[in-house]
Amino acid sequence: MSLELREVRKVFKNYGVETVTVENFNLTVEKGQFVTLLGPSGCGKTTTLRMIAGFEIPSSGKIILDGKDVTNEPPNKRNISMVFQSYALFPHMTVEENIAFGLRIKKMTSSEIKQKVKWIMDIVGLIGLERRRPEQLSGGQQQRVALARSLVMEPSVLLLDEPLSNLDAKLREAMRIEIRRIQKELNITAVYVTHDQIEAMSMSDLVVVMNNGKIMQVGNPFEIYARPRNEFVADFIGKVNLIDAFVEDDKDEKLELRCDIFYNKFFSISKMFQAKKGQKVKIVIRPEAFRLSPQGIDNSNCIKGKVLSSIFVGAAVECEIQVSNSVIKSVISNPIENAIPDIDSEIKLYFSNESLWII
Ligand code: ADP
Ligand code: MG
């Protein structure tokens, strides 16, 4: 393992008022893993990253790096590099000098420095821009310099705090792929911070969903999307319908559920869910789980309602459907022209049991 946080907690004290910013934080990051801390603004992501880097000391708990307790070590005693949102490049230095800066401080020979700078510039795609100054570079190029400057130090762990938020949408998408490519090529361990769920889903081996300083769930992108552990995760990751249901029975291998807004109120699903008879649960169903066509699907797995909105967005139609007193969101992919639901029309949508999740 590369990095471990054990029961990490951080309390800030301002004018005698204590704010718990991070608590019960437990995480193990394996060598070569790309782990993302994901959560809304103010949930404690940056504070956690700063504790890993050594810019903040935990109020309690331990940080273990490559098997060594570094909880109280200063940043320069940890083999860690951090990429900031603002890039923090030296404006008076060339690209080459910016990248070489950390190596100079390490007192490497100039031929070693030259070789390493060339090696990393090649990997991040900066060849030809050696003599430029930061102001003569585009945002994406500046981002690459910031990345190169961190990577050239060959850290045990690379930390990145919302590194793409200053780029426009298209470049952001391209840089997601680039960063992931470079991280894999160098097999470097990375902890990435973002509030953008698409970024987290598309880049990570492991996503740590945070809220109010606490971990809500740790899992791979599929798990946090398809098997959220609570309402916060279900709602924060993409669009979702959360539907009230009641456990009628928990016999044998099946859970018998009653859900008032389903066409056939009673249905059963396999018992991978920890719910007991008499319990109220919520059914998690993603908008894309619905189908218009009933082909091969049991007629009981269906909802019926009135179309409130129907928006054609090219690859899909996004509909809102009034079903008794709930509004259900659906995304119907590959629509054909004559099958786009009309507003105010009655509609039936089908889903499979496999697309349901219970919390
Ligand atoms: P995020 O990066 O998820 O947006 P932060 O870790 O920056 O969140 O901040 C989490 C909370 O901790 C915020 O409410 C912030 O105001 C508070 N906080 C961060 N740094 C300090 C500090 N040095 N003193 C007091 N409060 C702080
Ligand atoms: Mg932050």
UniProtKB/TrEMBL annotation:
<dbReference type="InterPro" id="IPR013611">
    <property type="entry name" value="Transp-assoc_OB_typ2"/>
</dbReference>
<dbReference type="InterPro" id="IPR050093">
    <property type="entry name" value="ABC_SmlMolc_Importer"/>
</dbReference>
<dbReference type="InterPro" id="IPR008995">
    <property type="entry name" value="Mo/tungstate-bd_C_term_dom"/>
</dbReference>
<keyword id="KW-0547">Nucleotide-binding</keyword>
<keyword id="KW-1278">Translocase</keyword>
<protein>
    <recommendedName>
        <fullName>Spermidine/putrescine import ATP-binding protein PotA</fullName>
        <ecNumber>7.6.2.11</ecNumber>
    </recommendedName>
</protein>
<dbReference type="GO" id="GO:0015417">
    <property type="term" value="F:ABC-type polyamine transporter activity"/>
</dbReference>
<dbReference type="Pfam" id="PF08402">
    <property type="entry name" value="TOBE_2"/>
</dbReference>
<keyword id="KW-1003">Cell membrane</keyword>
<keyword id="KW-0813">Transport</keyword>
<dbReference type="GO" id="GO:0016887">
    <property type="term" value="F:ATP hydrolysis activity"/>
</dbReference>
<dbReference type="InterPro" id="IPR003593">
    <property type="entry name" value="AAA+_ATPase"/>
</dbReference>
<dbReference type="InterPro" id="IPR017871">
    <property type="entry name" value="ABC_transporter-like_CS"/>
</dbReference>
<comment type="subunit">
    <text>The complex is composed of two ATP-binding proteins (PotA), two transmembrane proteins (PotB and PotC) and a solute-binding protein (PotD).</text>
</comment>
<comment type="function">
    <text>Part of the ABC transporter complex PotABCD involved in spermidine/putrescine import. Responsible for energy coupling to the transport system.</text>
</comment>
<dbReference type="GO" id="GO:0005524">
    <property type="term" value="F:ATP binding"/>
</dbReference>
<dbReference type="GO" id="GO:0043190">
    <property type="term" value="C:ATP-binding cassette (ABC) transporter complex"/>
</dbReference>
<dbReference type="InterPro" id="IPR003439">
    <property type="entry name" value="ABC_transporter-like_ATP-bd"/>
</dbReference>
<dbReference type="InterPro" id="IPR027417">
    <property type="entry name" value="P-loop_NTPase"/>
</dbReference>
<keyword id="KW-0067">ATP-binding</keyword>
<dbReference type="InterPro" id="IPR005893">
    <property type="entry name" value="PotA-like"/>
</dbReference>
<dbReference type="Pfam" id="PF00005">
    <property type="entry name" value="ABC_tran"/>
</dbReference>
<comment type="similarity">
    <text>Belongs to the ABC transporter superfamily. Spermidine/putrescine importer (TC 3.A.1.11.1) family.</text>
</comment>
<keyword id="KW-0472">Membrane</keyword>
<feature type="domain" description="ABC transporter">
    <location>
        <begin position="3"/>
        <end position="237"/>
    </location>
</feature>
